Amino acid sequence: MIVDVHAHFTYKDYDNNIDDIIKLMTKNGVKKVISNGLSYEDNINVLNLSKKYKIINAAFGLYPTEAGTISNSDLKKVINQIKSNKDNIVAIGEVGLDYHWTKTEEKKKRQKEVLSEIINLANELNKPLIVHSRKAESDVLEIMKSAKVPVILHCFSGNAELIDRAIDYGYYFSIPVILLKSKGFKRLVKKANLSNILTETDSPFLSIDGKTNNSSNIQKTIDKIAEIRAMDSNSVAKKIFSNYKELFDN
Prior knowledge:
The model has no long low-confidence stretch (mean pLDDT 97). The chain has a single domain (2-142, 150-248), classed as Metal-dependent hydrolases (TIM Barrel), CATH 3.20.20.140. The chain has helices at residues 18-27, 40-52, 64-67, 72-84, 105-125, 137-143, 160-168, 183-191, 218-228, 233-248; strands spanning 2-7, 30-36, 56-60, 91-96, 129-132, 151-154, 172-175, 197-199. The relative contact order is 0.15. It is of the alpha/beta class. The chain has ten helices and eight strands. Helix content is 45%, strand content 16%.
């Protein structure tokens, strides 16, 4: 009953073993994975992956660093791509802001402009948004106020005050496996309503053992969430699966 709302199975890390990885994840109880697109070209690869494997759902997006330099004509291409595939995707993501890799005010401004357009698109298509917010958590919370659709904060690393704001806004949090080592994510899991918690890997990234990540590792996240909230793992898994179905299976 495991779900992974944020992964990147189009990365070259999986070029030679994607069949084996899919079989492993299925064997380990993974029911659904949302592979998030990062660009026009990556969105095409994500769609092809979702057509090949039943376990994979597609999300089309535009990575923030791409958004910071994208031309109006190329942005229009991505927007039209999302519109024409609205029945083939379950969400719009990965999108958002990134101030870790982006330092110039000009590129930050462009990221915000692009994100605003994508929020309008999500409202129009009634698609949930899967949102990146690295070192830009406060600005993301502010700009996402215009979203009329569910907002899933991927790997949200804001401080306690920002967590409280996100909870007040009713946003969802997708929790990565690094919960096992992170005080910040443990604090988030304690504070957030279980109805607003989802699980993710950000595969192939954010591994806790130095190996290429995959959705099978989410069982460790579920067990840790259960420990933190003094619940049994089965109940946590069922609730997170229910949250997933409510957001993406309608």
